[in-house]
From TrEMBL:
Its cofactor is pyridoxal 5'-phosphate. Residues 72-331 form the Orn/DAP/Arg decarboxylase 2 C-terminal domain. It comes from the Bacteria. It comes from Paenibacillus eucommiae. It is an enzyme of class 4 (lyase). This is Carboxynorspermidine decarboxylase. GO terms for molecular function: lyase activity. It holds the Pfam family Orn_DAP_Arg_deC.
Amino acid sequence: MRIEELPTPCFVVDEAAIEKNLKILNGVMQRTGAKIILAQKAFSMTTMYPLIGEYLSGTTASGLFEARLGYEEMGKENHVFAPAYREDEIDEIISICDHIIFNSFSQLEKFKDKALAAGKKVGLRVNPECSTQVGHEIYDPCSTGSRFGTKLEDFRPELLDGVSGLHFHTLCQQNSDDLATTLQAFEAKFGKWLPQMDWVNFGGGHHITRDDYDIATLEACIKRMQDLYGLEVYLEPGEAVALNAGYLIASVLDFHKNGIDIAILDTSATCHMPDVLEMPYRPPLIGSGQPDEKPFTYRLGGQTCLTGDVIGDYSFDEPLQCGDRLVFGDMAIYSMVKTNTFNGMPLPAIAVQSKDGSCQIVRQFGYQDFKLRLA
């Protein structure tokens, strides 16, 4: 089927773009010997897992269900981290994961022996207390009050027996200069314990496949950990795997006017692209411009009852018409994984665009998907 024949709303993932990103990531692995694993929290489209598995070392999870997904669908290295683990889930988590990363020494004391008895690698997440993010405080694990990672003042080296690696994750959509800054803080606080470790995990948030990303600095950071401490290095990007590799196609349903021309679409910021409101950000829209850049400006909004269900203001060369199809870019990451059915809003279909340009719908949703979430 051609892309213009797809129903709307519909997520479309570009197989060629995914593979382009994977080749960049695999190049880092080949040159450095580091291992890169998919952070499923950003992109967990299992149709793509066989392709991803050809290039990356495995997956990382934030809890039991993601861990099961990586174990069942990719079957390579399977890592997990959570701020705290449930006692009724930890046995299954340990059974299907290779690396179990704990957030605190209290969690270590509680579950470490089980993990070690099962032959699994045990890690501890630390907080370098080095904030490098600007404007994205909601995603800053080093901010005051953050739930993530053990600070130096709470570090208990007498409990490190059996711990083979340290993990930090401080970045969000950032370049490698911020990784280098973070690594300095990490070494200053926790470097004295690195010689007794076997591995280190740099976490995620590395925008490695972005055009302006400084891969040389990233590889220098990896090499430093390898040469100075003899550590195996892991990275767990999510966005970098599917960056700029997906679209959300929507249709114009109607128009309204209230101080500005408003176009109502069959998609929704709050239901289908919630990061637009959480981050917040203005998603790219093919063929559009900034407000008033082109002759006709519209505020694009969804069908839900939330007044703030607004995608953004965009301008166009020609007036929009009912039935026009709009294509939002960079919609593979943190979109499908965050969709919801607020107001009974239907979920978008999911399609794959093959390398030859043809499209295939791999999942469609209906009323039962809404109903069965509820009781």
